[in-house]
Amino acid sequence: MANKDIDWGNLGFGYIKTDKRFVATYQDGAWNEGTLSEDETVVLHESACVLQYAQTCFEGLKAYRTKDGEIVCFRPDLNAARMADSCRRMKMPVFPEDKFVEAIIETVRANADWVPPYGSGASLYLRPFMFGTNAVIGVKPATEFEFRIFATPVGPYFKGGVRPLTVRISDFDRAAPRGTGHIKAGLNYAMSLYAIVDAHEQGYDENIYVDAMTRTYIEETGGANVLFVTKDKKVLTPKSDSILPSITRRSLMTVARDYLGLEAEERPIALSELENFVECGLCGTAAVISPVGKIVDHGKEIVYGMDSMGEVTQKLYNTLRSIQMCEIPAPEGWICKIN
Ligand SMILES: *Cc1c(COP(=O)(O)O)cnc(C)c1O
């Protein structure tokens, strides 16, 4: 059992310092072995590439405690592969994928007391990230980097029950064609801050971004992919090269097909189709799926239901959660045991 004295059920989503974080550095063309550190601070040169030109990317995944008291992670190999893609696009050196998974395991093991108990709904969130550390002033990639993974316990996402979201079709764009929308770079979040604060001020929970070229196709929100369910129970998700390939979304498409016997398709989804659908959800590591109750497209309201999760959305959610908690068998390779 987790032995930290924390009210796990009431924990929010904020940073709580845990015992150890993994730190590796890249210098003279090579990564060192990395080590576990107790120091949560980073001291940087004032002209570090990350500070001046935002050369940084990150990942996010969770460790859970199962019914048997074991600790597991969900598909960390996919986080390793996605981070490698992000690094290549950002001209950062890839931290080898097998070493990435080992470092995740090491970090979770070193903070095992912080993994919340089974049934609490809480989990241990892991944040791998990399940034360019040496001084640059002309625009060029750094030559020295730091790769870190910290762990922080986070509470159940749906405290006090599920509340379907009200989202708007945003007038801001998130990602350009052939830009960086498909990688997990901090810069994609920096430019979304204005839009999300504005959305909240206008009474919306999230922005749904559309394709920047034609502004007629659905892309995703600032930090989650979108799923729709059609009247005949088909699961749909937008296809675009500027969407971040969510591991949760990819897993849910497999769950739809192989566990629920539903059709699941990734294809371009036009704004004009929204009213044909019966359910909508946002998917990502944080919540698995948050139901969307209403989409507002410039005064036009498309309502999916403000009372509860849709039927198919709920089944997708329950099944993936059960897989993650090892309550039902997982597809080969989805569960990474820590012990
Ligand atoms: C991280 C992220 C997601 C969700 O990805 P998961 O792997 O499911 O957590 C979706 N969209 C964006 C823009 C993201 O950064």
Describe the structure.
There is one protein chain. With 339 residues, the chain is of the alpha+beta class. The chain has two domains: 8-154, Aminotransferase class 4, branched-chain amino acid transferase, N-terminal domain (D-amino Acid Aminotransferase, Chain A, domain 1); 165-324, D-amino Acid Aminotransferase, Chain A, domain 2 (Alpha-Beta Barrel). The chain has helices at 49-53, 76-89, 97-110, 186-190, 193-201, 247-258, 311-324; strands at 21-27, 30-31, 35-37, 56-58, 61-65, 71-74, 123-132, 145-154, 165-169, 206-208, 225-230, 235-238, 264-267, 277-284, 288-297, 300-303, 335-337. The strands form two sheets. Strands 1, 2, 3, 4, 5, 6, 7, 8 and 17 form a nine-stranded antiparallel sheet that branches. A hairpin with a 2-residue loop joins strand 15 (288-297) and strand 16 (300-303). The chain is globular and about 55 Å long. The two termini are 13 Å apart. The chain binds pyridoxal-5'-phosphate. Residues 60, 184, 220, 223-225, 244, 246-249, 284-285 line the site of pyridoxal-5'-phosphate.
Topology:
Elements: E1 21-27, E2 30-31, E3 35-37, H1 49-53, E4 56-58, E5 61-65, E6 71-74, H2 76-89, H3 97-110, E7 123-132, E8 145-154, E9 165-169, H4 186-190, H5 193-201, E10 206-208, E11 225-230, E12 235-238, H6 247-258, E13 264-267, E14 277-284, E15 288-297, E16 300-303, H7 311-324, E17 335-337
Parallel strand pairs: 9-10, 9-15, 12-13
Antiparallel strand pairs: 1-2, 1-3, 1-8, 4-7, 5-6, 5-7, 6-17, 7-8, 11-12, 11-14, 14-15, 15-16
Helix pairs in contact: 2-3, 6-7
The structure holds pyridoxal-5'-phosphate (PLP).
Pyridoxal-5'-phosphate binds near residues 184, 223 and 284.
